[in-house]
Amino acid sequence: MGFKDVFKKSFLEGFTSMDISAGRIMATFAVTCILACYVFLIYRLMTRKSFYSKGFNVSLAAMSVITAAIILAMQSNLVISLGMVGALSIVRFRTAIKDPMDLVFLFWSISIGIICGAGLYEVALLTCLVVTILILVLENLPASRAPMMLVVNVTDVDKEDAVLDIVKKYSNYYKVKSRNLTAGTLDMVVEVRVKEESAFVKEVSAVDTVLSASLIAHDGEVTF
């Protein structure tokens, strides 16, 4: 038996439409839909965005089913599988994913479709459980207080030291991010970590020649 015969028996003959029965197709779509709905629910419960995107969440569930269908089609016929690879290789997605967690859920949804399409339903279920536990554990780990931005407008530049003395009183960490001096007026931005936010802003505002003091939260990285 030559190499051509071995290749034909081991590879080419493996792609036959008879290998995928109607029962397996129905089972694959049923399990995929159940797990896709699970991902939909987890994303809805765990997202912390001010504006929840239902369209993105629906697309996560639909992507799992579509991916499973593609995997089933690729397993049924060699020509289809090669055509799918060629077709998908020219697809370019230009939608920017700004939240890293959205990217995690996107890959999670795709992986469910791939695993279920391959018939590894136990692996898909275990993956969902492990990913959910991992996200819950890491999200609830204790972290240090997130930094905030103190924006101060002072009409007397000599009062900068007085403002920084108050900052040192309330915060062990601070960093002056910018100083803008215009016609004797100082606009200063300081990164701080404070617990008593209300008292801190009131004391800064009470300094002579301080026109305004604002404490603003931002989405910077938090160190553990």
From TrEMBL:
Domain of life: Bacteria
UniProt KW Membrane keyword: yes
Keywords, comma-separated and alphabetical: Membrane, Transmembrane, Transmembrane helix
One Pfam family this sequence matches: DUF4956
TM regions (residue ranges): 25-46, 58-85, 105-138
Annotated protein name in UniProt: DUF4956 domain-containing protein
Species: Laedolimicola ammoniilytica
